[in-house]
Each structure stands twice: as structure tokens, then as C-alpha cells.
């Protein structure tokens, strides 16, 4: 579990629960959902990702990777979303978000690990099929981002995204196919279960909620996964889905996403269903 020493010593003086988060960050959504499921009070520190606030020295002194979220519990700093939600459930156990059967703990950890691995593909597909209308960065802004941000992998990603009208087809094909494989695995597991680990809603479900929601926004054909689609219907009925995920979306965002996705498909044929496993059906 990545409990780390903050470079900013004032973090250790913080009392209560604090979350540095972004409105649309899928990783931050997991943490907000977990906190809301447990009805825990927390103080938010909103990081404006499009304005590159995650690249400031001040924020990187909290999370050296320059990513959201970061979580503090009475001075204890935790990063990485799946580790944060695991920490929250272990330290604030009521109501429990772990399987009642301890023999299912390895399966829980497996779903959390897989959701963590899926994050790279989620990022790539989101930036390609939803985030392209964001104001382009100038060469100076890209250069400054590279100078200021310590996370080389993120810098390389932003450079590639900003430097091309579309990511390479091979990357998009692979990301779509891997995501489809994940969804097929989820669908198969849910064929005989109400939730991912049985009758109880757990961290495993929370870990995957933002992924399915994000793909819905880019018109991923969720109807091809009967059981996963049923599960997502249940997810949307939970109050935390609204309070911790939907309510944080800027006003009008869904309509803007929908208009962009529709227009791009109509004018160029570029759409998530034109790649990888989705294009083969």
C-alpha cells in the first residue's frame, strides 16, 4: 500500500480526511464513491487538470507522480486510487466494502489490480474519443509542462496526444481490444452474480464503476455484454454514483461529449467502434 512521506511537511499536520481530486478523473471518482458509500466527511482540494495544476511544484510536493487523487488521513498520505479505497475500507470498516467471506479476498485484490492495469487504456481512449475538443496546448505550454512535470510517462503521453490529430491505429486497436477483454471477463463473472463478488456490493464494483461510465460517454456498445449492462443499471441506482461521479461533471458536459462523438463519426468515421475487437463484430 503506497503510504508515502510527503515532500510538503505541512501535509503531516492536516487533521481529518483530505482528497486532492479532479472533477473527471476516474481515479478520483473511485475515491469519492468510496467515501460517499461510507458517509465520511472529507475536505476536497480540487486540481484543475486542463489548467495543468497537477504540474505545479506545490501539488507534486504532495503527490510526486503529479497525478490525482492524493488522500490524507490525519497526516498519513496515500496515493494510487485502488490503494486509497482499500485503505479507507480497512481504516473505516463500516459499512464494509469487502466480501464477507475472507476466502474471496484474493479475488477482490485481483479485480482491483486489473482495474489499475486498465487505467492506461482508459486514459488513451478518453483522450482520443472524448477530450480532443479541449483547447490545444501551444508549443510553449507543452515545453513548460515538460519542464515542470516530474512524471516522464505522462509528459510523453501529453506530447503524443497534442502532437497528432489521432493516436496511432495500432495503439487504439490494442486498447479497445484489451478493454473489450476486460468487459467480457466482467460479463462472465456477473452471469451468476448480482455484484462482482456475489450478493454484496464491494470495492471491486467501485473500482470498475468509473470505467464503464466513461465508456458509456464515448458510445461504447455496452449492449454486447448482457450481464455487465444489467450490473451498470444497478450501479446507476446507487446514490454514490450520482453524488460522487455524475454531480461532479461540469454542467452541459455530457451534451458536449455527445455532440463531439456524433459529429466526428459523421464527418470522419472515427469512433470507438471502428477499432480493435469492436470493429470485428
Could you explain the architecture of this structure?
The mean pLDDT is 97. This protein has 281 residues and is α+β, with helices and mostly antiparallel strands. The longest helix has 22 residues, at 169-190. The chain is 52% helix and 7% strand. It has helices at 26-37, 57-60, 81-91, 105-117, 119-129, 139-148, 152-163, 169-190, 203-217, 226-235, 239-244, 253-268, 276-279; strands at 3-4, 17-21, 43-46, 70-73, 76-79. It folds into two domains: 3-91, Glutaredoxin (3-Layer(aba) Sandwich), CATH 3.40.30.10; 102-279, Up-down Bundle (Glutathione S-transferase Yfyf (Class Pi), Chain A, domain 2), CATH 1.20.1050. A five-stranded mixed beta sheet has the order 1-5-4-2-3, covered by helices on one side.
List the helices and strands and how they pair.
Blueprint: E1 3-4, E2 17-21, H1 26-37, E3 43-46, H2 57-60, E4 70-73, E5 76-79, H3 81-91, H4 105-117, H5 119-129, H6 139-148, H7 152-163, H8 169-190, H9 203-217, H10 226-235, H11 239-244, H12 253-268, H13 276-279
Attribute tags:
281 residues; alpha+beta; Glutaredoxin; Glutathione S-transferase Yfyf (Class Pi), Chain A, domain 2; 2 domains; five-stranded mixed sheet; 5 strands; 7% strand; globular
Helix/strand order: EEHEHEEHHHHHHHHHHH
Please tell me what the overall shape is.
Answer: globular
Instruction: Catalogue the unreliable spans.
Output: none
Into which percent range does the helicity of residues fall? 40-55%
Number of strands: 5
Structural class: alpha+beta
**Radius of gyration from the CA trace?**
19 Å
In whole angstroms, the N-to-C terminal distance is 40 Å
If strands are numbered along the chain, what order do they take across the biggest sheet?
A: 1-5-4-2-3
Amino acid at each position: 500500500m503506497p503510504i508515502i512521506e510527503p515532500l510538503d511537511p505541512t501535509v503531516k499536520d492536516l487533521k481529518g480526511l483530505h482528497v486532492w481530486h479532479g472533477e473527471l478523473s476516474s481515479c478520483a471518482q473511485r475515491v469519492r464513491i468510496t467515501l460517499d458509500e461510507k458517509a465520511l466527511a472529507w475536505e476536497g482540494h480540487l486540481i484543475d487538470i486542463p489548467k495543468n495544476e497537477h504540474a505545479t511544484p506545490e501539488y507534486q510536493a504532495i503527490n510526486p507522480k503529479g497525478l490525482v487523487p492524493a488522500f490524507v488521513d490525519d497526516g498519513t498520505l496515500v496515493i494510487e486510487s485502488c490503494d486509497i479505497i482499500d485503505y479507507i475500507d480497512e481504516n473505516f470498516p463500516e459499512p464494509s466494502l469487502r466480501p464477507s467471506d475472507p476466502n474471496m479476498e484474493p479475488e477482490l485484490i485481483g479485480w482491483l489490480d486489473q482495474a489499475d492495469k486498465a487505467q492506461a487504456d482508459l486514459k488513451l481512449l478518453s483522450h482520443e474519443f472524448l477530450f480532443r475538443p479541449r483547447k490545444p496546448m501551444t508549443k510553449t505550454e507543452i515545453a513548460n509542462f515538460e519542464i515542470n512535470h516530474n512524471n516522464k510517462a505522462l509528459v510523453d503521453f501529453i506530447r503524443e496526444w497534442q502532437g497528432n490529430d489521432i493516436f496511432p491505429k495500432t495503439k487504439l486497436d490494442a486498447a479497445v481490444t484489451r478493454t473489450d477483454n476486460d468487459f467480457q471477463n466482467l460479463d462472465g463473472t456477473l452471469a451468476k452474480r448480482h455484484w462482482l463478488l456475489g450478493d454484496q456490493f464491494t470495492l471491486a464494483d467501485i473500482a470498475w464503476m468509473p470505467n464503464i461510465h466513461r465508456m458509456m460517454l464515448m458510445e461504447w456498445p455496452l449492449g454486447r455484454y448482457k450481464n455487465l449492462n444489467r450490473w451498470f443499471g444497478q450501479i446507476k441506482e446507487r446514490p454514490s454514483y450520482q453524488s460522487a461521479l455524475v454531480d461532479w461533471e461540469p454542467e452541459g458536459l455530457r451534451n458536449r461529449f455527445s455532440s463531439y462523438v456524433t459529429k466526428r463519426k459523421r464527418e470522419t468515421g472515427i469512433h470507438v467502434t471502428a477499432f480493435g475487437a469492436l470493429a470485428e463484430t
